[in-house]
Amino acid sequence: MTEHVRVENNGGILTLTLARPDKKNALTDAMYGKLADTIESAEFDPSVRVLLIRGEGDMFTAGNDVGEFAAVASGKSEGSRNVGRFIQSLARCTRPLVAAVQGRAVGVGTTMLLHCDLVVLAENTQLSTPFVSLALVPEAASSLLMPARIGYARAYEMFALGETVPARAALEWGLANRVVPLDRLDAEALALAQRLARQPTGALTATKKLMRNGEMLVAQMQAEGEQFAQRLRTAEAREAFTAFAERRPPDFTKVS
Protein backbone atom coordinates (compact mmCIF):
# COMPACT_ATOMS: atom_id res chain seq x y z
CA MET A 1 0.00 0.00 0.00
CA THR A 2 3.03 2.28 -0.24
CA GLU A 3 1.58 3.59 -3.51
CA HIS A 4 -0.83 5.49 -1.28
CA VAL A 5 2.01 7.88 -0.41
CA ARG A 6 3.51 9.67 -3.42
CA VAL A 7 6.94 11.24 -3.06
CA GLU A 8 8.43 13.87 -5.38
CA ASN A 9 11.65 15.87 -5.00
CA ASN A 10 11.62 19.06 -7.07
CA GLY A 11 13.85 22.07 -6.54
CA GLY A 12 14.86 21.02 -3.05
CA ILE A 13 11.23 20.52 -1.96
CA LEU A 14 10.30 16.95 -1.05
CA THR A 15 6.52 16.63 -1.41
CA LEU A 16 4.72 13.80 0.38
CA THR A 17 1.16 13.33 -0.89
CA LEU A 18 -1.37 11.19 0.97
CA ALA A 19 -2.96 9.49 -2.03
CA ARG A 20 -5.80 7.28 -0.83
CA PRO A 21 -8.71 9.60 -1.61
CA ASP A 22 -11.27 6.81 -2.00
CA LYS A 23 -10.71 6.07 1.72
CA LYS A 24 -10.43 9.73 2.71
CA ASN A 25 -6.63 9.28 2.98
CA ALA A 26 -7.04 7.13 6.10
CA LEU A 27 -3.55 6.09 7.16
CA THR A 28 -2.52 2.44 7.18
CA ASP A 29 0.54 0.82 8.71
CA ALA A 30 2.17 0.66 5.26
CA MET A 31 1.51 4.37 4.69
CA TYR A 32 3.01 5.26 8.08
CA GLY A 33 6.04 3.19 7.13
CA LYS A 34 6.52 4.97 3.81
CA LEU A 35 6.13 8.38 5.46
CA ALA A 36 8.61 7.48 8.22
CA ASP A 37 11.15 6.08 5.74
CA THR A 38 10.93 9.21 3.60
CA ILE A 39 11.24 11.71 6.45
CA GLU A 40 14.10 9.78 8.08
CA SER A 41 15.99 9.52 4.77
CA ALA A 42 15.54 13.25 4.10
CA GLU A 43 17.74 14.00 7.12
CA PHE A 44 20.70 12.56 5.20
CA ASP A 45 19.84 13.87 1.73
CA PRO A 46 21.49 17.22 0.98
CA SER A 47 19.15 17.71 -1.99
CA VAL A 48 16.18 18.03 0.40
CA ARG A 49 15.82 21.50 1.85
CA VAL A 50 12.10 21.50 2.77
CA LEU A 51 9.37 18.86 3.21
CA LEU A 52 5.80 19.56 2.11
CA ILE A 53 2.93 17.33 3.26
CA ARG A 54 -0.41 17.42 1.44
CA GLY A 55 -3.45 15.25 0.81
CA GLU A 56 -5.13 14.28 -2.45
CA GLY A 57 -8.88 14.70 -2.90
CA ASP A 58 -11.39 16.54 -0.74
CA MET A 59 -9.88 15.62 2.64
CA PHE A 60 -6.39 15.92 4.14
CA THR A 61 -6.82 12.69 6.11
CA ALA A 62 -9.47 10.87 8.13
CA GLY A 63 -6.69 9.83 10.51
CA ASN A 64 -5.72 6.28 11.32
CA ASP A 65 -7.53 3.56 9.39
CA VAL A 66 -10.29 2.60 11.84
CA GLY A 67 -10.29 -0.97 10.56
CA GLU A 68 -6.76 -1.42 11.85
CA PHE A 69 -7.73 0.02 15.24
CA ALA A 70 -10.73 -2.32 15.39
CA ALA A 71 -8.54 -5.34 14.62
CA VAL A 72 -6.34 -4.51 17.62
CA ALA A 73 -9.33 -3.89 19.88
CA SER A 74 -10.79 -7.28 18.94
CA GLY A 75 -7.49 -9.08 19.45
CA LYS A 76 -7.05 -9.95 15.76
CA SER A 77 -3.94 -7.81 15.30
CA GLU A 78 -0.93 -6.68 17.31
CA GLY A 79 -1.28 -3.18 15.93
CA SER A 80 0.67 -0.77 13.77
CA ARG A 81 4.45 -1.11 13.74
CA ASN A 82 5.07 2.16 11.98
CA VAL A 83 2.87 4.88 13.46
CA GLY A 84 5.37 5.42 16.27
CA ARG A 85 8.20 5.68 13.76
CA PHE A 86 6.23 8.25 11.77
CA ILE A 87 5.40 10.60 14.62
CA GLN A 88 8.92 10.30 16.03
CA SER A 89 10.35 11.15 12.61
CA LEU A 90 8.28 14.34 12.71
CA ALA A 91 9.63 15.23 16.15
CA ARG A 92 13.23 14.62 15.09
CA CYS A 93 12.99 16.23 11.65
CA THR A 94 15.43 19.14 11.35
CA ARG A 95 14.28 20.21 7.88
CA PRO A 96 11.41 22.73 7.65
CA LEU A 97 8.03 21.01 7.44
CA VAL A 98 5.17 22.69 5.56
CA ALA A 99 1.59 21.34 5.48
CA ALA A 100 -1.22 22.07 3.01
CA VAL A 101 -4.54 21.02 4.53
CA GLN A 102 -8.04 20.86 3.05
CA GLY A 103 -11.32 19.41 4.26
CA ARG A 104 -11.23 17.32 7.41
CA ALA A 105 -8.03 16.55 9.31
CA VAL A 106 -8.93 13.96 11.93
CA GLY A 107 -6.83 12.62 14.81
CA VAL A 108 -3.24 12.29 13.68
CA GLY A 109 -4.22 14.47 10.73
CA THR A 110 -4.46 17.32 13.22
CA THR A 111 -1.76 16.32 15.70
CA MET A 112 0.89 15.99 12.99
CA LEU A 113 0.35 19.68 12.21
CA LEU A 114 1.77 20.53 15.63
CA HIS A 115 5.13 19.33 14.27
CA CYS A 116 4.93 21.35 11.06
CA ASP A 117 6.70 24.69 10.94
CA LEU A 118 4.28 26.36 8.52
CA VAL A 119 0.65 25.27 8.13
CA VAL A 120 -1.64 26.49 5.36
CA LEU A 121 -5.35 25.69 5.64
CA ALA A 122 -8.01 25.89 2.98
CA GLU A 123 -11.11 27.77 4.05
CA ASN A 124 -13.06 24.50 4.24
CA THR A 125 -10.65 22.86 6.70
CA GLN A 126 -11.97 21.31 9.90
CA LEU A 127 -9.57 20.02 12.54
CA SER A 128 -10.60 17.42 15.11
CA THR A 129 -8.99 15.11 17.67
CA PRO A 130 -11.75 12.67 18.74
CA PHE A 131 -9.48 10.34 20.70
CA VAL A 132 -11.61 10.07 23.84
CA SER A 133 -14.71 9.42 21.72
CA LEU A 134 -12.89 6.29 20.50
CA ALA A 135 -11.90 5.40 24.10
CA LEU A 136 -8.29 6.36 23.35
CA VAL A 137 -5.83 9.08 24.41
CA PRO A 138 -3.97 11.78 22.45
CA GLU A 139 -0.77 10.92 20.57
CA ALA A 140 2.14 12.57 18.70
CA ALA A 141 3.03 14.51 21.88
CA SER A 142 -0.19 16.46 21.39
CA SER A 143 -1.04 16.10 25.09
CA LEU A 144 1.94 18.40 25.64
CA LEU A 145 1.96 20.50 22.47
CA MET A 146 -1.75 21.26 22.11
CA PRO A 147 -2.28 22.86 25.56
CA ALA A 148 0.98 24.78 25.09
CA ARG A 149 -0.23 26.07 21.72
CA ILE A 150 -3.90 26.89 22.37
CA GLY A 151 -4.34 26.69 26.16
CA TYR A 152 -5.64 23.94 28.42
CA ALA A 153 -9.34 24.79 28.15
CA ARG A 154 -9.47 24.69 24.35
CA ALA A 155 -7.20 21.64 24.15
CA TYR A 156 -9.25 19.70 26.67
CA GLU A 157 -12.46 20.44 24.78
CA MET A 158 -10.87 19.25 21.53
CA PHE A 159 -9.65 16.02 23.14
CA ALA A 160 -12.43 15.17 25.59
CA LEU A 161 -15.43 16.21 23.49
CA GLY A 162 -13.97 15.81 20.02
CA GLU A 163 -14.99 19.36 19.12
CA THR A 164 -14.27 20.37 15.53
CA VAL A 165 -12.24 23.53 14.94
CA PRO A 166 -12.89 25.37 11.65
CA ALA A 167 -10.08 26.98 9.69
CA ARG A 168 -10.56 30.57 10.85
CA ALA A 169 -10.65 29.57 14.52
CA ALA A 170 -7.57 27.39 14.00
CA LEU A 171 -5.76 30.41 12.58
CA GLU A 172 -6.87 32.63 15.46
CA TRP A 173 -5.76 30.02 18.02
CA GLY A 174 -2.30 29.66 16.48
CA LEU A 175 -2.70 26.26 14.84
CA ALA A 176 -2.03 27.64 11.36
CA ASN A 177 -0.12 30.39 9.55
CA ARG A 178 -2.50 31.04 6.65
CA VAL A 179 -6.10 30.39 5.59
CA VAL A 180 -6.69 30.64 1.84
CA PRO A 181 -9.40 29.72 -0.67
CA LEU A 182 -9.29 26.04 -1.60
CA ASP A 183 -8.19 26.77 -5.16
CA ARG A 184 -5.11 28.62 -3.84
CA LEU A 185 -4.06 26.07 -1.23
CA ASP A 186 -1.36 24.18 -3.10
CA ALA A 187 0.10 27.32 -4.69
CA GLU A 188 0.31 29.11 -1.33
CA ALA A 189 1.94 26.16 0.44
CA LEU A 190 4.39 25.66 -2.42
CA ALA A 191 5.30 29.36 -2.43
CA LEU A 192 6.11 29.21 1.29
CA ALA A 193 8.14 26.02 0.78
CA GLN A 194 10.08 27.70 -2.03
CA ARG A 195 10.83 30.71 0.16
CA LEU A 196 12.17 28.38 2.86
CA ALA A 197 14.21 26.47 0.28
CA ARG A 198 16.01 29.71 -0.61
CA GLN A 199 16.97 30.36 3.01
CA PRO A 200 20.31 29.13 4.46
CA THR A 201 19.70 25.53 5.54
CA GLY A 202 22.20 25.65 8.40
CA ALA A 203 20.56 28.68 9.97
CA LEU A 204 17.08 27.17 9.57
CA THR A 205 18.22 23.92 11.19
CA ALA A 206 19.88 25.70 14.11
CA THR A 207 16.82 27.88 14.65
CA LYS A 208 14.48 24.89 14.70
CA LYS A 209 16.69 23.02 17.17
CA LEU A 210 16.64 26.04 19.48
CA MET A 211 12.84 26.26 19.30
CA ARG A 212 12.00 22.55 19.65
CA ASN A 213 13.37 19.77 21.88
CA GLY A 214 12.85 16.71 19.69
CA GLU A 215 13.95 14.17 22.29
CA MET A 216 11.61 15.63 24.92
CA LEU A 217 8.76 15.28 22.42
CA VAL A 218 9.75 11.67 21.67
CA ALA A 219 9.68 10.89 25.41
CA GLN A 220 6.13 12.30 25.60
CA MET A 221 5.16 10.24 22.56
CA GLN A 222 6.44 7.09 24.22
CA ALA A 223 4.42 7.80 27.37
CA GLU A 224 1.32 8.46 25.28
CA GLY A 225 1.99 5.34 23.22
CA GLU A 226 1.95 3.11 26.29
CA GLN A 227 -1.42 4.50 27.35
CA PHE A 228 -2.74 4.35 23.78
CA ALA A 229 -1.80 0.67 23.40
CA GLN A 230 -3.44 -0.19 26.71
CA ARG A 231 -6.61 1.73 25.85
CA LEU A 232 -6.93 -0.03 22.47
CA ARG A 233 -7.42 -3.34 24.27
CA THR A 234 -10.12 -2.20 26.71
CA ALA A 235 -13.83 -2.99 26.68
CA GLU A 236 -14.44 0.71 26.06
CA ALA A 237 -12.43 0.57 22.83
CA ARG A 238 -14.21 -2.60 21.69
CA GLU A 239 -17.54 -0.85 22.20
CA ALA A 240 -16.34 2.26 20.35
CA PHE A 241 -15.19 0.35 17.27
CA THR A 242 -18.14 -2.04 17.29
CA ALA A 243 -20.47 0.95 17.36
CA PHE A 244 -18.52 2.56 14.51
CA ALA A 245 -18.86 -0.57 12.40
CA GLU A 246 -22.56 -0.85 13.21
CA ARG A 247 -23.09 2.87 12.54
CA ARG A 248 -24.63 3.57 15.93
CA PRO A 249 -23.66 5.75 18.88
CA PRO A 250 -21.46 3.90 21.41
CA ASP A 251 -22.89 3.21 24.87
CA PHE A 252 -19.98 3.43 27.27
CA THR A 253 -22.27 3.16 30.32
CA LYS A 254 -22.31 -0.60 29.72
CA VAL A 255 -18.55 -0.99 29.96
CA SER A 256 -17.20 1.80 32.14
From TrEMBL:
<keyword id="KW-0576">Peroxisome</keyword>
<dbReference type="InterPro" id="IPR001753">
    <property type="entry name" value="Enoyl-CoA_hydra/iso"/>
</dbReference>
<dbReference type="InterPro" id="IPR051053">
    <property type="entry name" value="ECH/Chromodomain_protein"/>
</dbReference>
<dbReference type="GO" id="GO:0004165">
    <property type="term" value="F:delta(3)-delta(2)-enoyl-CoA isomerase activity"/>
</dbReference>
<protein>
    <submittedName>
        <fullName>Enoyl-CoA hydratase</fullName>
    </submittedName>
</protein>
<dbReference type="InterPro" id="IPR029045">
    <property type="entry name" value="ClpP/crotonase-like_dom_sf"/>
</dbReference>
<keyword id="KW-0413">Isomerase</keyword>
<dbReference type="Pfam" id="PF00378">
    <property type="entry name" value="ECH_1"/>
</dbReference>
